[in-house]
Design brief:
The protein is of the alpha+beta class. It has 2 domains: about 110 residues, no CATH class; about 60 residues. It is about 30% helix and about 30% strand. The protein has 5 helices and 10 strands. Strands 1, 2, 3, 4, 5, 6, 7, 8, 9 and 10 form a 10-stranded antiparallel beta sheet that branches. Helix 2 packs across helix 4, helix 2 runs parallel beside helix 5 and helix 3 packs antiparallel against helix 4. The longest helix has 20 residues. It is globular, with a radius of gyration of 24 Å. Keywords: Signal. It comes from Aliiruegeria lutimaris. GO terms for molecular function: electron transfer activity; heme binding. This is Trimethylamine-N-oxide reductase (Cytochrome c), cytochrome c-type subunit TorC. InterPro entries: Cyt_c-like_dom_sf.
Length: about 230
């Protein structure tokens, strides 16, 4: 047996630290910028300050609005609604700047709860749009992890009720704002409750000529094309 003393090599700790620092920074950065899990409101629903039936309403979330899920407990999701408001009209939130696709509404007394995220000025209209975020709780039953079932329900209503007086219109033949004006006139003629009219409107606006390419789920357009 070789009893000669063995040479032990220790790592260069300084070099090791130099390598670990950028690695740890990269991991931290990736964790901080990770996309929150998206949810979609399956109905118009109150956004409340706590989970439970006795909670205080902070805002209202529109059907099909996209939400970021923060946590889930006791049958409720804690979510963040991030949407755009026209400067000077902060109570009404839209999914996209310049597109009147309703995402939610905030009572005047709660506007201060909305955290500012970014602003942009429309060069064509001169209007400033502010993106804000407001957090709260909604029932688990009022949200879906994908848009497909929401759009399927909307398409069924649209196909059934919007052909009684005229040939069915193709969603992509109009802009999102044009659909809002059209449904304002045609919606009451369908005999549908206001909530179902809003569901149809959300579907049409999100599949309009100026929004279809911004759909978060590629399958939604394919499903629509297949049903025509």
């Amino acid at each position: 047996m070789d009893k000669r003393p063995q040479t032990v090599f220790f790592p260069d700790l300084a070099a090791l630290r130099r390598g670990l620092v950028p690695l740890m920074f990269a991991i931290s950065l990736a964790a901080g910028t990770a996309r929150a899990e998206p949810l979609y409101a399956s109905a118009t629903v109150p956004l409340t300050d706590t989970p439970g039936a006795q909670a205080t309403r902070l805002a209202q979330v529109a059907v099909a609005a996209e939400l970021d899920r923060i946590e889930t407990r006791d049958g409720y999701h804690r979510v963040a609604l991030k949407a755009w408001a026209r400067a000077g009209a902060e109570q009404v939130l839209f999914s996209l700047p310049g597109k009147r696709i309703l995402a939610g509404q905030i009572p005047k007394q709660n506007i201060g709860l909305a955290e500012p995220l970014e602003s942009l000025r429309d060069p064509e209209t001169g209007i400033t749009w502010n993106r804000v975020s407001i957090e709260g709780w909604i029932p688990q039953s009022a949200a879906e992890p994908r848009l497909d079932p929401i759009w399927a329900a909307a398409w069924e209503l649209f196909a059934e009720r919007c052909t009684a007086c005229h040939q069915r219109r193709v969603p992509e033949h109009y802009t999102a704002n044009q659909w809002r004006s059209l449904i304002k006139v045609m919606g009451p003629r369908t005999g549908l409750p206001k909530e179902e009219q809003m569901l149809i409107l959300a579907f049409l606006q999100n599949h309009a000529s100026d929004t279809i390419d911004q759909q978060p789920k590629a399958g939604a357009r394919a499903d629509t094309d297949a049903r025509r």
